[in-house]
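Bug #77: duplicate submission created two jobs. Keeping one. Sequence:
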Amino acid sequence: MNYGLGIDVGNTFVAAALARGATAEMVNFGDHGVVMPAAVQLRGDGSLSSAGASRGTSRPDWVCGEFMSRLGDPTPVTLGGAPYTVTDLVGTIVRDVIQDVTAAQGGPPDHVMLTHPASWGPFRCVLLEEAARRAGLGKPSMVTEPEAAVTDYAAAQRWNDGDTLAVYDLGGDTFNATVLRQQSGKAHILGKPERIEHRGGNDIDDAILSHVNDTLDGALNKLDPMRPQNIAALAGVRRQCTRAKEALSADTETAFRVLLPDQRFDVRLTRSELDDIARGTIELTIDALSRTVRSAQVEPADLSAILLVGGSSRIPLVARMVSAALGRPAVVATHPQHAAALGAATLAARTTPRTTQRNRSEGPKPQRGDDKRERHAGNGTAIPTLTATKATGTGQPPETGLRIPAQRTASAIPAQRTPPPEETAPAARPALATSAAGADVAPARTPAPVVTPPPAQPPEPPVIRPPGARPAEETSRPPLRRALTSYADRPRVFIGTGLAVTLAGSILLALLGGKSGTPVSGQSAAEPPAGSATTAVAELAPEAAIPAVAATVPLEAGPAFVDVSPNGMYAYIANAGSRSITVLNTADKRVIATIPIATGPPRFLAPSPDGRKLYVSIFNDERTVHAIDVLDTGSNTVIATIPQLARPYLPAISPDGKRLFVPNHDIASVSVIDTASNTVTAQIAVPPNPHWVAFSRDGSRAYTANHESNVVSVIDTATLGVLYTIPVGTSPHAVAVNPRRPLVANVNFDSASVSIIDTTTQKVVATVPVGRNPQDIAWAPDGRFAYTVNNGSGSVSVIDASTNRVTTTIPTGPGPTSIAVLPASNQAYVSDLDGNTLTILDLAH
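Kept job's structure:
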C-alpha cells in the first residue's frame, strides 16, 4: 500500500503514525483521537484485545494497563484469574494497531517501525521483538524514542553532520533524557540515557488536585469515598485539573467549575501558581538531563539545542528552566506528544519495502487447521494469530501457550500447542547491536539494584482464614494498581482525613461500557472465561511488587523514624541527632518546615486519624528524659508535653482518636493517654520491653511487640487486659495490622524473620526469612504486600501476603530504621539513620 507505519507504545498511551514519502500523519483511533490508552482487556470468549479500542467488559480484573515499563519482569499479569506475560499484552496492542490501520487503509503497511526507550538494554529489546513477532511482524524494525523524535525534528529543521542535540522527554508517567549527534546522516546516541519511571505530568496533576482541595478548605476531604457519585465527582475534578494545566500552556490564568454532589465551586488557577506546583518535578528532570549531558562528555555549550518532547514539556516553565539550567535554547517539538510516532513512521517509509507479516519460514510451522483461523487483510495477506503465552512467574521460559485468535471477535481459544524453542526462550535470541535508524545505542543505564528472591521453595501452607471469610483474590484489589489509574486519566484522590479513594475501577468500567460487579452473561463473577483457566490458576498469587529507589532526600542529623499524614500530603521525619522534625511535601519532595523539639531527641511519631496532631515519643540516651510531645500540624508547634515513666517507644492512637497507647520500654507497661486532656489514665502490664503498638481496624484490640519476651501481646482495649501472648521469633521489634485481612505481622530483630499471625486463631501461620535485623514493617493500604526494613542489611524486603514469601529486596541508604507507605500505595519513605537521608521508594507495579 506504499506507506510506512510507526508505533509508539508508551506506558500510558499508544500513538501511531503513517508516512507516504516525506509526509507523516497521525493515525486516528476513533473516539480516543490520535492517542489511546495503553491497556489490554480479556474478552468473554477468552481472547485479548486493546481495552482502549474496544468495549464490553464488566470486570475490572479483566483489564490491565501501564505494563510497558514491566517488560522483562517475569511476574505474570493476572486477567480473569489467568496469568499472562507482559510480552503477550504488548503484542496484543501492536497487533490491534496494525489491524486497525490495515482496515482503514485497505491493506497492510509496507514496513512497521516500533519505538522503545533509549535506556533499554538488549534483553528488553529482544522481548519487544518477541512481542512484535507474536503480533505477526516477523523480525520487526525498532528505533529508540529519541532517535525517532529527532528524525521528526530534522524534517522541519536543519540538522547538520556534527550537530549535537539533547532530547528532554517529559511524558505523563516517565521522563527520558538523551544526547544525540548527527554523523553521516544518522543519529548516534552519546553517553548514557537516563529514565525516571513514574515522574511526569501525572505528578503535577496530583499536586494541582491537592491545591484545589486546599483552595476549597478541604471540601474534597468530606466526601464519603464509598459512594459512587462521589467517586465519579472526584474523577471529574481531577480531569478538570489536567485540563487547567493544559490551558495554562497558552493562557496566564484559567478558571473551572468543581462539581460535587450538592455543591459547586469556581476555582481559579494562575500560571504562577502552576509554576510553583510544577517546579519540584521539573528540577528533578533537569538534574537527570544534566547527568546525561555529562555522561556524553559534551559541554552544554556544545549542544545545538535542547529538543523538548512529551506532552508535559508544553508547560512554559519547562522551557524556561531547562534553557536557564543549561544555557542553551530549548525548542518545543512541533507535535511534542507525537514526535516519536511521527519520526518512526518517517523511518519506516524510508526503509526498503518488505512484507511486515511473518513469513512461514520465520516462525513455527502451523499446526493442522491453523490456516483456517487466519484473518486476511485487504490485499489477501494472511495475518497470523497471536500466541498468548501462559506465564509461570518463575523467570523460567514460558510454558505451553494459549492460542489467542488475532481477530477480536473470535469465539473461543483453540487447543493448546507447544511452541518451538525460539518461541519459548526469547532471551536466547541474538542481542540487537544497533537500532533501525543505525544509531550506536549505548548500554542501558543501570537501574536501581534489585536483589531477586532465591529459587522457588516448596509451597508453604496457605494463610488460614476464618470460616466464611472470602479468599484473598476476592478481598484484595485486582492487580491493576497504578496501571488502572493511569489508564483512566489517573482519576484518583488521596486527600483529607484518612481518605484514600481509588476511582480508577469505576471510571474504567464507565469507559468500557460495563457495570461494576456485573458478571459477563453466562459466567459467575468469580469464574474466568471458558478455556482460559488451568489447574494452577486458582492458586496464582497476586502480581508481585517491583519497587525501585526513586529519590534520596538529605535530612537533619539522625533521622530515626518517618511517618506520613493520613491524607498522604506530608511526611514527618523525627531527627534524633538534631532534635527536630522535618516536614516534607510528598507532591514535590521538598522540605517545607523544620520544627525544633526542645523537650529532647524525637524518636517515634504517630499522627492522629484526622491529621491535626502528631504525637512524638522523646527520650535521651541517658534515660533522664522520657515524654510525649503533642504537635499541632497546622501551626507546626508543640502544644503539650506528657511525661512518661520510662522510654516511650512507638505509640498508636485508637481509630476514634480518643486514646493513645504508649509502650514504656523499660517498665513492661503500656500507658493509656486520654487525647482530650493529654493525661495518662491507665497502665497496662505486658511482658518485658514492649516496642511497637498497633490497633486493630475496629479498635477492639491492640497488639504489642515485646522485644525481650519473644511474644506479641494482644490487649483488649475495653478491659485493658492482655488476652493472649503469642510466641514469635527472637526479639520482636515492630508490629503491623493488615488493613484488609485478619493478619498481623511482626519483625523479629535477632532472627531475621517476619512472623505472620492469624488474628482469628491467634497463631503464627508463617515465618518469612528477610534481611538482617529487621526493625520496622508496614502494610500496603490494600493489604497485599508488606514492606520490611532490614537495618543490618540496608534494604527493604517485599512480602507477598498471599504466598508469605519475599518477592523483591531493595537496597536503601545505610542503617534504615523505619518505613511509611503513602495511602496511594505508590510510594514509601524509609528513614536512613546512618546516612542522614530519606530514601523514597516507588512501589508502582
